[in-house]
Design a protein that fits this description.
about 425 residues; alpha/beta; 17 strands; globular; disordered C terminus; flavoprotein; EC 1.14.13.59; NADP; oxidoreductase; Lys/Orn_oxygenase
Length: about 425
């Protein structure tokens, strides 16, 4: 079986590790960059593939790309991508700070193809990572095992797999053809005939649920679509110039430096700026569209609000949802052919990280300010968690807003560790 040795292995080829790769090529010694590898189970580099809707925007300024906040003159900037793609004039003429989501996805793929030192390998699914020890039992590195039986050993490990989709417990185990999380929206829609009168439910009150509710009206024009949520109605995300300052990289210091109770207070205050809400422009468009269709007697949608999903069963004809009215407690049944979930992601660490923590016998999973996994033993090896540290680094940790600062801090930490180790095999460690 194939085995490889690298100095740095990064699992996941999303925005976090692509920004890491840029930082390696621009900040790290050449021998480290050339002995680093990014791997991903997907065969292509695609961002938010499940909801890569043609009209969806990125909700973030193009200046918050993978490098500009650190190095505005970088060849890996979004502006240079537009220039290389022959679209810079058109983008400027749009007069919009927020690129389309598909354009950001194309940018990420362009970055992956433009790297000259860091290797990128796709179509490799990592199934487990564990510690690698010498004869004396000292932790000296990491071993990653892949679905095809191959392995990769490294001294430095960066894990950025994204969080696992959240499937409500009452829907767990139901057919994946009928219960579809937002991460699988576009692939599943591609298999469905457009002209059938499906009975559809969309579960959730956030941005992804709103996007699916909107998209389904075009993708399945004959469908009866019910948008089901716990709130009294769809709420707008709390957004202003003032709240956006909480997504500056510098705000991470305030969060990390707070007490555990203080961090929780900050999270509660920031919750509605990123969760359980919808972009105001999308809400306005949805309301206007329902109004116009209502005038013409063509509205096939409904909002089912203030309910808890308390049960579900799969039948030959579809899925029966049991909904409890939060005001009266009354239980009603909603029969649907398809159920789409805008229920976000699980709050716990991904299975890959939990498995590693178990092998290390860690009592808790936490990281330093520079995102290094805190170990219970001394080691020259180090593992870093990217986009998984909301508890310690704030709500913005999983977003593009801080990805440049986060990955630069990680690379600087690795370069510093190499320098202080003073090993002869790292000839350029002090560069």
């Amino acid at each position: 079986m194939k085995h490889q040795d690298v100095e740095l292995l990064a699992i996941g080829v999303g925005p976090s590790n692509l920004a890491l790769a840029i930082a390696l090529e621009e900040l790290a010694p050449d021998d480290l960059a050339r002995n680093s590898m990014l791997i991903d189970r997907a065969d292509t580099v695609v961002w938010q593939q499940g909801l890569l809707l043609p009209w969806a925007t990125s909700q973030i300024s193009f200046l918050k790309d993978l490098v500009t906040l650190r190095n505005p003159s970088s060849e890996f900037s979004f502006v240079n991508f537009l220039h290389a793609s022959g679209r810079l004039d058109h983008f400027i003429n749009m007069g919009n700070l927020w690129p389309y989501r598909s354009e950001i996805s194309d940018y990420f793929a362009w970055v992956a193809n433009s790297l000259s030192k860091v290797k990128v390998e796709l179509g490799r699914e990592c199934v487990a990572v564990g510690p690698r020890r010498d004869a004396a039992g000292k932790l000296v590195g990491w071993s990653a095992r892949f679905a095809d039986g191959s392995t990769v050993s490294s001294r430095y490990l960066v894990i950025a797999p994204g969080r696992d989709p959240h499937i409500p417990e009452v829907l767990a185990g139901l057919s994946a053809d009928r219960v579809i999380h937002g991460t699988r929206y576009t692939p599943r829609l591609a298999t469905l005939p457009r002209d059938l009168p499906y009975r559809v439910a969309v579960i959730g009150g956030g941005q992804s649920a709103a996007e699916m509710f909107c998209a389904l009206q075009d993708d399945l024009p004959e469908a009866d679509i019910a948008w089901v949520m716990r709130s009294l109605g769809p709420n707008a995300l709390q957004s202003s110039k003032f709240t956006n300052e909480m997504y500056y990289p510098s705000f991470v210091d305030k969060v990390y430096g707070a007490s555990p109770a203080g961090r929780e207070e900050i999270r509660r205050e920031m919750h509605r700026t990123n969760y359980s809400g919808v972009e105001p422009d999308l809400l306005q468009n949805l309301y206007s569209d329902r109004y116009v269709k209502g005038l013409a007697g063509q509205d096939r949608t409904s909002l089912v609000t203030m309910v808890d999903l308390v049960g579900a069963e799969e039948t030959e004809d579809g899925v029966v949802l049991q909904l409890a009215d939060r005001a009266t407690g009354e239980i009603t049944r909603l029969e649907r052919d398809l159920v789409f979930l805008g229920t976000g992601f699980r709050g716990e660490m991904p299975a890959l990280v939990r498995g590693l923590a178990d092998e290390l016998k860690l009592s808790e999973i936490t990281v330093t300010r520079r995102y290094q996994l805190v170990l219970d033993e001394p080691s020259d090896a180090a593992c870093y968690l990217q986009g998984l540290n909301e508890d310690t680094h704030g709500v913005g940790d999983s977003l593009l807003s801080v990805v440049v600062d986060r990955t630069a801090a990680t690379v600087q930490d690795i370069v510093s560790r190499r320098h202080h180790a003073g090993r002869t095999e790292f000839a350029d460690a002090g560069a």
